[in-house]
Amino acid sequence: MAKVTKNLSQLSIEAKEQFLDSFDMVQTDCDGVLWMLKDPYEGVAESIKELRNNGKKLVFVSNNSVRTMDDYRAKLEKVTDYTVEEEDIVHPAKVVIAYLKERGFDSLCYVIGSKHFKKCLRDAGIQVLDGPNEPVNESVAEIVPVIADKKPVGAVIVDFDYNCNNIKLLRAQLYLQHRDCWFIAGAMDKVLPVGPKMRLLGPGYYVEMLQDITDMKPIVLGKPGLAMSKVLKRKYAIENPQRVLFIGDQPEMDVKFGGISNFQTLLVGTGGVQEGDLQKYVSLNDPYLVPDYYIGAFADLAQIVRDVAFYKTTKANKL
């Protein structure tokens, strides 16, 4: 039987109360949910405040590791009245670091990723090899020594890199052909929505190419990776995942991540996927792509919380 998404705004007040009482933690995506590129959506700060006042813990989970932690902190401070904790800001670089440290990994990593992503790893004591960052002459004789340098690489890590090129992918391929080398993926987005009408090629395609040529399945430490889910469950001591609500704007990344984590899922329409688009995901016969709930915008949650609070007060006064 096909999964049916409930429109949160159209539920009865009793159903809204049941929804709000069903979770203790909110994990939410950032880009497309709280903001798009620069400024936060109107009403986001009010919804965060209302959810917190209702006793919900908020964690901010992004696949965008190009954005610096200072930028995340600055943006989130605006919508949390300067009360955000860095521990509650999650992106792939931090998850990769946690994963490697949990396993005592101390080998060299070849990293395809942004400057910020690589800086996070280096600052955490991870040995990072990258590049080449300069063009290589189009000659097999000159390319082979670059891509087959026989460095003692213990892990290849692939995330979003604006300057990704064929030489970097060839290097990654040759390192991965040594079967004792780990294959780790950060962000798996195949599409990066940067505006209502602009959707760019994402790093998921790089990972897919390397997976196909090496016949190696990556350890996915960005959404929608199960390995990432396990890291976050340990980090936040989540014992009952059904008491977590995951909010996102992309079914392939956010809703699927929430689904494989056994969290409840809420899709917002501000990232470009509207309620009317959900039938397409139902037809794919993958229940992880279909959210439990839909709402037009994260900002609309404030009114849901206020309505339920008023309803509960009214009920209590009648007793």
From TrEMBL:
UniProt GO cellular component terms: cytoplasm
InterPro entries given in the database record: HAD-like_sf, HAD-SF_hydro_IIA, HAD_sf
Annotated binding of Mg(2+), by residue: 29, 31, 249
Gene Ontology MF terms in the entry: metal ion binding; phosphatase activity
Keyword annotations of the record: Hydrolase, Magnesium, Metal-binding
Cofactor note: Divalent metal ions. Mg(2+) is the most effective.
Catalytic machinery residues: 29, 31
Cofactor(s) the record lists: Mg(2+)
Descriptive protein name: 4-nitrophenylphosphatase
Family: Belongs to the HAD-like hydrolase superfamily.
Protein's UniProt keywords contain Nucleotidyltransferase: no
Highest taxon, organism lineage: Eukaryota
Pfam family, one: Hydrolase_like
Entry binding sites for substrate: 62-64, 223
Lineage: Eukaryota, Metazoa, Ecdysozoa, Arthropoda, Hexapoda
SUPFAM superfamilies: HAD-like
Gene3D superfamilies hit by this protein: HAD superfamily/HAD-like
